[in-house]
Write a structure and sequence with these properties.
mainly alpha, Growth Hormone, Chain: A, 2 domains, membrane, transmembrane, transmembrane helix, MFS
Amino acid sequence: MTVQTTVPVGGRVREGRTLAVVSAATMLALMNYNATFSTLAAMARDLNAGTAGQTWILGGIALGTAVLLLAVGGLADDHGRKRVFVAGAGTLAASSVVCAVAPTTTAFVVGRLLQGGATAALLAAGLGLIGHAFPAGPERARATGMWGAMLGLGIALGPEASAGLAEVAGWRAWYVAAAVASVALAAAAGAALRESRAEARRRADAAGVLTLGLGVAALLGAITLGRGGWARAEVLALLAAAVALLAAFVVVESRTREPLLDLRLLRRADFAVATGGAFVTGVAVIGLMSYLPTVVGRVLGAPPLLAGAVLTLWSGVAFVVSLQVRRLAAEGRHLIAAGLVLCALGDLALIGLSADWGWWRLVPGLVVSGAGSGLLNAALARMAVESVPPSRTAMGSGANNTARYIGASIGVAVVVAMATSGPSPTRGADVALAVCAAIALAGALAALAVRRGR
């Protein structure tokens, strides 16, 4: 079997173990990522969290994940994907304990920030391991489809598992369970995975890591605080810092011989489509669906567990569709465009949500949007590793997921602002759905417009 680096991966059994461990880690990471959605009220009450505190409880893990994704992807390629993956599992266990015993909002948010870093390591190194283990072709399509399906399954199960455990033993029970699962994951990874890294180890791009990390942190910090008012001095200061630091990152990367992100990759059509598609997916799809259960709960008067079923139905369909994408012979950019169009159509089908609706009225839009998300999850995963050199698969994963999670943070802020600014929850929800549909359609057109030979 042809492999892509100096460290071979032998046999289908080894490949199967790699896929199983990475898939389990992806599901756990996404379950944990969304665990706060269904227990926020109880957490806020126990931790005495006000509006700002609740915002950080929801956004802390996104900040930690987005800041470190690209950096840990490069670290995994250069120093060992298995090593970074196991370290991520161990960090997720330790940070889950911090969350489980946190006495204050600040302590809990620190734990979530650390969980974000651990999530970044699992996602970037995990997809890098898959890219190394499975050569381009049908087997890689199957493996990346499974990885994408785990994103959907984790999103579906996370809020429900968290809410279910909270009913039995309180909201802290989820973090105890996550810590135990993470320890088991680290042990399984140590036993089942084989190490892989780039053939030539590069020097660490400290300036790139610093400017990108601080720039993304400033941007997401501004977005998080901006939900309480965009004209405040601290928000404007953070936005200015983000612009300056990200501009500095571009300058640094253009002048560094061994950059964290080779900006020349943006000239590759597939890399541009994969990164841009991930960003649009974050803004128009994840951002909307992260807040839609709250909108549905307010409009229909449903309890949190029932409102969370909206997310479960959407992501459950995404899970099923992702597993089948390998059967499609279309190019990646066509799959991304089709996925964004389906998400837009699903959004449009939900316009008009009102207290008079029965639950069955939500199903068509959620199913169509879920099918689009399934296409996107699988296609973006495959393009993330195929649009970069074989030795940089974890970096490709890191870049793709960085774009996705930055987009998701922006999307949540935009959707919340639109959904809460109208004269009624239904009117605000309609505006948010229409805007997200328009963004998704624009992203689909952009993906098709990028020429293959670029």
